[in-house]
Design goal:
The protein has 277 residues and is an all-alpha fold. The protein has a single domain (62-273), classed as Orthogonal Bundle (MetI-like fold), CATH 1.10.3720. It contains 11 helices and no strands. α10 runs antiparallel to α11. The model has no long low-confidence stretch (mean pLDDT 79).
Length: 277
């Protein structure tokens, strides 16, 4: 074995070890970053006025959340938000990938749909809530439709870029092996698109929770956003602050989990094939 070969092998081993450590240490680094949030809360608790109408101490937030949990309203709202988030994100992923493959593969479709896509994705989600409400009605179905329309675009656009970035040698190999369209899709297109789809999905995950809460606040859903709005109308400041922390923690855990999944998935692809390389 030559010295250059040994060097290449050693570098590859160090990279794999470093990526493995990154996956393991990611939760530790994330918790360490929470210290900047925990320290102000501790100070607030020490100097806060329990009689304050707008800024009750954090200990009262917990008591308010316990009350909401015991009467069932917190878990009902969480179930609705989780359902809207999960179904909306999965549908956005499915539609975004399928549409992205078609648009990226067929130039005439790209030219025909580009103006419509640019128009729809430019509309802010709150603006489409009344129109969706007229078509679908209020409730869970309306919230899911709004989420899908709002968050599918990062996935779709990344998929289009991924389709156009598939190396020509892979296409030629599939053609030489006389692969059927279905086999070409499963063995060439989808594996090549995975890093691009994951990058688009990373953006969509953050957007999905925000849009889900928007639909509740604007009157289309019955999730955590609606519960937060109700507590604000009842001037329950302790419950409002508690729900804000609860929603923030939920979003943080979702992003932390997806970041870990993304790191694991990206370990299967060379750095030169990643969309951010």
């Amino acid at each position: 074995m030559t010295a250059s070969t040994e060097t290449i092998i050693a570098v590859a081993k160090r990279r794999r070890a470093r990526r493995g450590r990154d996956v393991v240490l990611a939760p530790v680094k994330a918790v360490r970053g929470l210290l900047l949030l925990i320290i102000p809360l501790v100070v607030w608790q020490l100097v806060g006025d329990p009689e304050s109408f707008s800024f009750p101490p954090p200990s009262s937030w917990w008591d308010a959340l316990v009350v909401l949990y015991e009467d069932g309203s917190l878990m009902r709202a969480l179930a609705v938000t989780a359902t809207t988030f999960t179904i909306g994100l999965l549908l956005a992923l499915l539609l975004g990938v399928l549409a992205g493959i078609v648009i990226g593969s067929v130039p005439i479709v790209d030219r025909a749909l580009s103006p419509l896509i640019d128009f729809i994705r430019s509309m802010p989600p709150p603006a489409i809530v009344p129109a969706i409400g007229l078509i679908v009605g209020s409730g869970l179905g309306s919230s899911i439709v709004i989420v899908v329309i709002a968050v599918m675009w990062p996935i779709l656009l990344n998929t289009v870029v991924g389709v156009r970035s598939i190396p020509q040698v892979r296409r030629d190999t599939a053609r030489t092996l006389a692969l059927s369209p279905d086999a070409r899709l499963l063995k060439v297109t989808i594996p090549s698109l995975a890093p691009y789809v994951m990058s688009g999905l990373r953006i969509a995950v953050s957007m999905t929770l925000i849009v889900t809460l928007f639909t509740d606040i604007l009157g289309s859903g019955q999730g955590l956003g609606r519960l937060l709005q109700e507590m604000q109308h009842f001037f329950r400041a302790d419950a409002v602050w508690g729900l804000l922390v609860f929603i923030g923690a939920l979003g943080y855990l979702i992003n932390l989990a997806f970041d870990l999944i993304q790191r694991i998935v990206f370990r299967r692809w060379p750095e030169t094939l990643r969309p951010d390389a």
